[in-house]
Amino acid sequence: MSSPAVEIKSLTQEKTLAKKSSLCHAENMNKIQEASLQIQKGEVVAFPTETVYGLGADAFNEAAIQKIYALKGRPSSNPLIVHIADLNDLELLARPLNAIEKQLVTAFWPGPLTLILDKKETVPMATTGGLSTVAVRMPAHPMALELIKRAGTPIAAPSANLSGKPSATHHDHVRHYFGDQVFCLEGGATQHGLESTVVHVKGNEIHVYRLGSILPEDLSTVTEKNVILETRSIHSPGTQFKHYAPKARVELISKKIWDERVKKAEEAKEKVALLAPKEWMEVPTKFPKFSLGSEENLVEIGANLYRALITMDQPTVDTLFLPAFPEQGLGKTLMDRLKRAAEIEGV
Ligand code: TXA
Ligand code: MG
């Protein structure tokens, strides 16, 4: 098969394997070992995944899970994603997969896809925000996989940011949010920079609760099932909360009116920073700028987006100008995050 989804999978696996040798050298192995002991002791550890950094704890240790909520300032009704390193770990968490779920897992794991499954009784309600379902994914990152294996338990982990803020896509961002409060495995910049796609298979349909790098069209190509977007779903508590929002106001501007809007802001002496594709930066201006990469490469833009938001959210800046992209393919995922950052209703 040479469907786009299968290409995504092989890409993810290749990258995982290629990184394994470089990231899991002796020094890192010692750190991973130390982190796994922290998890076993009921402590919280930050670690890289291929999407964003996670703030992890033993999924079965209620007291440890409470520490995650407290550190993030996260509402206790917003459930966590449980990360596994081996398909056999699923048995600990949920009922067996149905045929569609199996197709998804075969195509996309390890990778940025989270499945909502009926949970086993043994999974604490604290982990699932009081729901009878549990969110599970197998991350495509050698350090994350090694950490889970060594800890000997699935690791529940939300994104490693303060609640409502942009997710951490570099270990420097974890420090920015949490200082020395948590042990952090340092893996540099993450590959995708956008959180996983969250899906719930219901009967013959795939409901998408959160868009990510794996697109609705990838899901339907692999399964030939209907894919339904429910990205403000009451079934997925996290999608209801304020998200990805910097302190500064965010204004989304289309390419057509970008130059004109920048000039107007210059004239009005607004305190603005520009975060946009490099092709949009030619407009003459003294405003601080952060290039997100090429508009031809939305994957690169996704990988840089949160770093740009975190870096440019300075007290001297009132408004961040960000690009409004056409809502197709990965552009739809980017616009989901950008509209939430701008606190636009009805994403
Ligand atoms: O890429 C990712 O998914 C990252 C890395 C660390 O794995 N994690 C992440 O976790 O983004 P978090 O907690 O920031 O987002 C989890 C999302 C939330 O929107 C939450 O409401 C939803 O998944 N979720 C978790 N469990 C759920 C459940 N049982 N039913 C519906 N939605 C659920
Ligand atoms: Mg999050």
Rg over CA atoms, rounded to whole Å, is 20 Å
The main β sheet shows up as: 10 strands, mixed
Parts with pLDDT < 50 across at least 5 consecutive residues: 1-15
Which cofactor or ligand species appear? threonylcarbamoyladenylate, magnesium ion
What fraction strand?
15-25%
User: Which class of secondary structure composition applies to the elements?
Assistant: alpha/beta
User: Can you list the strand order of the major beta sheet?
Assistant: 7-1-2-6-3-5-4-8-9-10
| Mean pLDDT score | 91
Number of helices: 11
Distance between the termini: 34 Å
Helix and strand string, N-terminal first?
Answer: HHEEHEHHEEHEHEEEHEEHEEHEH
Structure notes:
Helices cover 36% and strands 18% of the residues. By secondary structure, the chain is of the alpha/beta class. It has a ten-stranded mixed sheet with strand order 7-1-2-6-3-5-4-8-9-10, sandwiched between helices. Strands 11-14-12-13 form a four-stranded parallel sheet, sandwiched between helices. α2 crosses α6 (142-151). The protein is globular, with a radius of gyration of 20 Å. 49% of the residues are buried. It binds threonylcarbamoyladenylate and magnesium ion. Threonylcarbamoyladenylate binds next to β4, β5 and β9.
